[in-house]
């Protein structure tokens, strides 16, 4: 027999295909093997094992509730500046560590409980289903609802009251963590946005020289920046205080002042206005001597310091607040109180 005949003899016929010793039609090389026989779990045949799984799931949900309560309690127990040593992380914030640990445990316990519930108590029998059109027929929709009801029944949600109760408790408590986090976005402003550091009798301090200002120190047409007496540039809260209390002082000819209240609140033509723009709070630093206008460099809002600091151009919402000033017995410029309206962006006009 030739090599050609031997090779043709070993080839499968056109009607058959050899595969691991089995003969299959050539036209169907990937036949559907079907689903393997369903093997019941121990929980399916042993109620004691099922109850043990139920208690495990309930324990995880209960652990989530305890962790959530611990998350909220951490805000009360740990001060924000407390530092502790925790191996292997080193020195960390006690508050941040407690919050991360308790929230992580709360979320993990819910997830682990749900997974254990699904793997041990819910039905795990695979059911094949043919594909169908995107738009379901009434019969299919009814079948979906029937399958859902069957799934609820097989999940034993109604039967396992301990799981149901602890799961609802865990899911109800976890959102409280988000409420606490929202509260921790920062301290409530209370009246801090409406007041500044200026008080009656407080001297005006030159921000460049750190010396009290006298009327003769300010020439006509000049622009001077001032801060409240007692505020050091090295103070921890300097930026917070100066962000609202920054003051610009300009000396005008009294006859150029158009607003009567501005004239009454000034001293010999010296007027004091907030340096904070009423648009988005940028510091104003550009002064036009001939027009008495100040310009905000951020969005070009323009204010007329000879007419009550009113807006004459730009997106600013209201006039610059004016500080009422006078001269004390020692000849220094001093404030006669705080600004009468809040400084900065006009949030308060929308109240």
From TrEMBL:
<feature type="compositionally biased region" description="Basic and acidic residues">
    <location>
        <begin position="38"/>
        <end position="49"/>
    </location>
</feature>
<keyword id="KW-0812">Transmembrane</keyword>
<keyword id="KW-0472">Membrane</keyword>
<keyword id="KW-0813">Transport</keyword>
<keyword id="KW-1003">Cell membrane</keyword>
<feature type="transmembrane region" description="Helical">
    <location>
        <begin position="97"/>
        <end position="118"/>
    </location>
</feature>
<protein>
    <recommendedName>
        <fullName>Cytochrome bc1 complex Rieske iron-sulfur subunit</fullName>
    </recommendedName>
</protein>
<feature type="domain" description="Rieske">
    <location>
        <begin position="239"/>
        <end position="334"/>
    </location>
</feature>
<keyword id="KW-0408">Iron</keyword>
<dbReference type="InterPro" id="IPR045603">
    <property type="entry name" value="QcrA_N"/>
</dbReference>
<feature type="compositionally biased region" description="Basic and acidic residues">
    <location>
        <begin position="12"/>
        <end position="22"/>
    </location>
</feature>
<keyword id="KW-1015">Disulfide bond</keyword>
<dbReference type="InterPro" id="IPR005805">
    <property type="entry name" value="Rieske_Fe-S_prot_C"/>
</dbReference>
<comment type="similarity">
    <text>Belongs to the Rieske iron-sulfur protein family.</text>
</comment>
<feature type="region of interest" description="Disordered">
    <location>
        <begin position="1"/>
        <end position="49"/>
    </location>
</feature>
<dbReference type="Pfam" id="PF00355">
    <property type="entry name" value="Rieske"/>
</dbReference>
<keyword id="KW-0479">Metal-binding</keyword>
<dbReference type="InterPro" id="IPR017941">
    <property type="entry name" value="Rieske_2Fe-2S"/>
</dbReference>
<keyword id="KW-0249">Electron transport</keyword>
<dbReference type="InterPro" id="IPR036922">
    <property type="entry name" value="Rieske_2Fe-2S_sf"/>
</dbReference>
<keyword id="KW-0411">Iron-sulfur</keyword>
<keyword id="KW-0001">2Fe-2S</keyword>
<feature type="transmembrane region" description="Helical">
    <location>
        <begin position="57"/>
        <end position="77"/>
    </location>
</feature>
<dbReference type="InterPro" id="IPR014349">
    <property type="entry name" value="Rieske_Fe-S_prot"/>
</dbReference>
<dbReference type="Pfam" id="PF19297">
    <property type="entry name" value="QcrA_N"/>
</dbReference>
<keyword id="KW-0679">Respiratory chain</keyword>
<comment type="function">
    <text>Iron-sulfur subunit of the cytochrome bc1 complex, an essential component of the respiratory electron transport chain required for ATP synthesis. The bc1 complex catalyzes the oxidation of menaquinol and the reduction of cytochrome c in the respiratory chain. The bc1 complex operates through a Q-cycle mechanism that couples electron transfer to generation of the proton gradient that drives ATP synthesis.</text>
</comment>
<keyword id="KW-0560">Oxidoreductase</keyword>
<keyword id="KW-1133">Transmembrane helix</keyword>
<feature type="transmembrane region" description="Helical">
    <location>
        <begin position="162"/>
        <end position="182"/>
    </location>
</feature>
């Amino acid at each position: 027999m030739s090599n050609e005949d031997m090779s043709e003899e070993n080839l499968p016929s056109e009607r058959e295909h050899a595969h691991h010793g089995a003969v299959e039609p050539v036209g169907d090389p990937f036949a559907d093997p079907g689903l393997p026989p369903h093997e019941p779990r121990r929980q399916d045949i042993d109620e004691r094992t099922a109850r043990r799984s139920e208690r495990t799931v309930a324990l995880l949900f209960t652990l989530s509730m305890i962790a959530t309560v611990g998350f909220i309690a951490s805000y009360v127990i740990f001060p924000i500046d407390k530092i502790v040593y925790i191996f292997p992380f080193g020195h960390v914030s006690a508050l941040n560590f407690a919050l991360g640990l308790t929230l992580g445990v709360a979320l993990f316990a819910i997830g682990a409980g749900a997974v254990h519930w699904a793997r041990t108590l819910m039905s795990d029998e695979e059911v094949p289903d043919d594909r169908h059109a995107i738009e379901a027929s009434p019969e299919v929709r009814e079948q979906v609802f029937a399958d859902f009801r069957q799934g609820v029944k097989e999940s034993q949600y109604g039967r396992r009251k301990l799981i149901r109760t602890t799961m609802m408790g865990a899911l109800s408590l976890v959102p409280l963590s988000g409420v606490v986090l929202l509260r921790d976005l920062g301290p409530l402003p209370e009246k801090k946005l409406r007041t500044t550091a200026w008080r009656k009798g407080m001297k005006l301090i030159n921000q460049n020289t750190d010396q009290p200002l006298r009327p003769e120190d300010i020439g006509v047409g000049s622009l001077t920046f001032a801060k409240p007496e007692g505020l050091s540039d090295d103070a921890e809260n300097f930026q917070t205080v100066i962000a609202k209390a920054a003051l610009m002082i300009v000396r005008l000819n009294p006859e150029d002042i158009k607003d009567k209240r501005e004239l009454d609140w000034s001293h010999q033509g010296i007027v004091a206005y907030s340096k904070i723009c009423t648009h988005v709070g940028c510091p104003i630093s550009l002064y036009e001597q001939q027009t008495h206008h100040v310009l905000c460099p951020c969005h070009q809002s323009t204010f007329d310091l000879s007419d009550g600091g009113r807006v004459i151009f730009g997106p600013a919402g209201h006039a610059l607040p004016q500080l009422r000033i006078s001269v004390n017995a020692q000849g220094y410029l001093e404030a006669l109180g705080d600004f009468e309206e809040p400084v900065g962006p006009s949030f308060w006009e929308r109240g």
